[in-house]
Amino acid sequence: MPADDDQRRRLRRRLLALALCLGLLLALALAWSGTPLRQSLNPELLLPRLQALGQATGPAWAVLALGLALCLAIPLTLLSLLVIAAFGPLTGFFCAMGGALLGAALSHGLGQILGHEALCRIGGPRINQISQSLGQRGLLAVIALRLVPIAPFAVVNLVAGATHIRLWQMLLGTALGMLPSTLVMAFFLNDLLQALQQASPWLYALLGLGAGLIALAGWLARRWLRQLRQDARTS
Q1: CA distance 233 to 122
Q2: From CA 59, how far away is CA 167, in angstroms rounded?
Q3: DSSP per residue over 148-180, as a string?
Q4: What's the rounded Cα separation, in Å, for the pair 22 and 28?
Q5: Residue 18 and residue 115: Cα distance in Å, rounded?
Q6: What is the pLDDT of residues 162-193, one digit of tens each?
Q7: Which of 1, 82, 111, 150 has the greatest CB tally within 10 Å of its CB?
Q8: Residue 145 and residue 49: Cα distance in Å, rounded?
Q9: Are 108 and 157 within 8 A, CB to CB?
Q10: What is the pTM assigned to this prediction?
Q11: Which residues form the VTT domain (predicted)?
């Protein structure tokens, strides 16, 4: 039917737009770290601007700026450190978390607009099964990806929006997954750096344990994703 053909063409155009957005975000992520564009992220240049922004308009504008910057695939860790340095541990912690949640919501919304309906209708049964499985375990999936980031922040959010992962799962998973690292950056980073200068075997053992736990979380996340693919094949 002509109406069905028009709808399928519209959905294909959305999928193409989603693919272009993903390609652009991946290119930006590489550019921020491997091209002269990274000079624009020099902390010595950004920190005074961020502090001036906070003095003029308050932390709320810093949250907005951070959220929009994350949508452009600027590294989350760098931006979090800058916000914490600009506003202090407590205010900086809430600004970093608020900006991350805003960036996650914006990217997730864009992915949902461009890709969710298209994947459900023309993605095929296997793609739909994987997407539904992700939705059923969406909170755990987001937490795992925040603890062990295997792709740029904005890319993960965009793809999640196109699947059955709901917005509340994205936001709660982002908050829970980011909480440990953001707390460390805000309240314990200076103590850790000072401890490293006076390192002891116990400190290195603790750091090794932390690295081992991160590696274990990554292995569990990969195993879980492999199980999702197997479930999709057998369904």
Answers
A1: 18
A2: 24
A3: S--S-HHHHHHHHHHTT--HHHHHHHHHHHHHH
A4: 10
A5: 6
A6: 888 999 999 999 998 888 888 888 887 666 55
A7: 111
A8: 31
A9: yes
A10: 0.79
A11: 74-189
Q: What is the pLDDT of residues 69-80, one digit of tens each?
A: 999 988 888 888
Q: How many angstroms separate the CA atoms of 185 and 89, rounded? A: 8
Task: List Cβ neighbours of 105 (8 Å cut-off, separation of 6 or more).
Answer: 67, 167, 170, 171
Amino acid making up residue 165: I
State whether residue 137 is helix, strand or coil.
coil
CA distance 153 to 66: 12
* Number of residues that this document lists for the chain: 235
- Residue 144 CA to residue 136 CA, distance in Å, equals 14
Reading the block at residue 181, the tokens are: 């690292």
The domain locations on the chain are 2-234
